[in-house]
Design goal:
The chain has two domains: 92 residues, no CATH class; 137 residues, Leucine-rich Repeat Variant (Alpha Horseshoe). Helix 3 crosses helix 5, helix 12 packs antiparallel against helix 13 and helix 14 packs antiparallel against helix 15. The chain contains 15 helices and no strands. By secondary structure, the protein is mainly alpha-helical. The protein starts with a helix and ends with a helix.
Length: 241
């Protein structure tokens, strides 16, 4: 009897270990968090995703499970998962930084919401992952130039603007792209561009002449928010002398 019980425990232990290591077990674990997301809950709001994001903040290991959803063929699941990343990155960017590379393929996703959540997430961590952002600057330029979604373009300009915070080199690389965004879209993304210019002035004060010339015409812009940001830039430049 003792032999039988010992054999049973050893066999059960092996089965249990193999089961935990199996892809099926991983799928079951992923499904647990996936089933809590908005689309699975038939929740047309972001409430369910917000609850999932809070759980990920408390238990960051769940973010690895959420990231597997980026590879799903389920478009709604993809969108939910990257929205969770955005929610977490807003106030806890360091939790997302180790998983930043997993976000990049979503920049070319066919679903507009998925693209904007992907680049929105990157905008929150851009100054923390300068090497990654530098490697995808051509892709970000293309989004600014060609993406039909103003929201996607907004967050892409934000990403470049925040990348400019990192150092002098990132500021130099960001300047041309931000200027291009202004040339292409005029006031549409000017607020984000000017915020980027402010970051550039922190690292490259020598750019104040060029930035001043570019910014001054927008003191008479139609959008009040653009005028407000333009005034901040000009006031700062005038203080610097």
């Amino acid at each position: 009897m003792k032999f039988v019980m010992k054999f049973y425990r050893q066999t059960l232990g092996k089965i249990s270990t193999n089961y935990r290591k199996s892809d099926n077990w991983m799928s079951m674990r992923n499904m647990e968090i996936f089933n809590q997301l908005s689309s699975a809950q038939s929740d047309k709001t972001e409430k369910s995703n917000r609850i999932a994001a809070d759980k990920c903040i408390k238990n960051p290991k769940l973010l690895n499970d959420i990231a597997t959803g980026f590879l799903s063929a389920d478009k709604k699941l993809q969108s939910d998962c990257i929205e969770v990343f955005t929610m977490v990155s807003e106030n806890h960017p360091d939790l997302i930084v180790p998983l930043a590379d997993k976000i990049l393929p979503l920049l070319k996703n066919k679903e507009t919401k998925t693209r904007w959540e992907a680049v929105h997430t990157l905008s929150f961590i851009a100054d923390k992952i300068p090497e990654i952002i530098c490697s995808i600057l051509p892709d970000l330029q293309e989004l600014i130039k060609k993406d039909k979604s103003a929201i996607v373009r907004d967050y892409t300009v934000d990403t470049v603007a925040n990348f400019a915070k990192f150092d002098k080199d990132s500021s130099e690389k960001a300047f041309g792209i931000l200027k291009m965004a202004l040339d292409l879209w005029n006031e549409k993304h000017a607020k984000q561009v000017f915020q980027g210019f402010s970051n550039i002035l922190d690292n490259k004060p020598a750019y104040k002449t060029d930035i001043g010339k570019i910014t001054r015409p927008y003191l008479d812009a139609k959008k009040k928010v653009v005028v407000k940001e333009a005034k901040k830039i000009i006031k700062r430049i005038e203080k610097q002398g």
